Structure formats: structure tokens, C-alpha cells
Amino acid sequence: MMGELADTKQQLATARSFESHLGNAETALELIADESIGQDPGLMEEVGASCQLLDVALDAWEVRRLLAGKYDALGAVAGAYTRPLLGST
């Protein structure tokens, strides 16, 4: 039960992070659209940085969601073994 609560809190924090990065990019784009302010090249850099941070956060979230199945938290160990092909040395 406590694990589920911790997971839910983590998901909420992640969603807030998405909202923050998206809000930052949106604000910068609005400033760029304002002709009196939009000539600042730093604003485009801010938009790019916010989008990049959002992309990284979304990728991490996707991996966590893919590994959030019923049995994924049980600590399984996987191994791969190879052997030589027949006739090779």
C-alpha cells in the first residue's frame, strides 16, 4: 500500500514537472510572438532548453511506465548465454 502511495506521488511530481517545462516554453513562445520583445535570441534558446528537458522527462517517464507492471518490482534477474556456432573455433 505504501509503495503504491509513493508511486502515485512520484507520478504526480512528474506530471507537475511536465507542466512546468511546457509552461516555460509556452511563455517564451508568447514573448517571441510579441514583436517588441521577440528579437531576443535568448528566448529561442529558452524554448529549446525547456523542450529538451520535457523530452528527457517524457522519455524517463515512458521507461518507468513500461516497467511498472505487476511483477516488474520483484527483482528478477535476466541472463544471456552464448555458445560457439557448430563448426567454428
Which properties best describe this structure?
89 residues; mainly alpha
Condensed summary:
This protein has 89 residues and is mainly alpha-helical. The protein contains 2 helices and no strands.
Rounded mean pLDDT is 79
**Count of β-strands:** 0
What is the count of DSSP helices, taking H or I runs of 4+ residues? Answer: 2
Distance between the ends: 54 Å
- Could you list the spans in which at least 5 consecutive residues all have pLDDT below 50? none
* Backbone structural class: mainly alpha
Which oligomeric form is depicted? Answer: single chain
Helix content: 55-70%
Percentage beta strand:
under 5%
Largest sheet: none
Report on this model:
This protein is mainly α and 89 residues long. It has a domain of 57 residues. Helix content is 65%, strand content 0%. α1 packs antiparallel against α2.
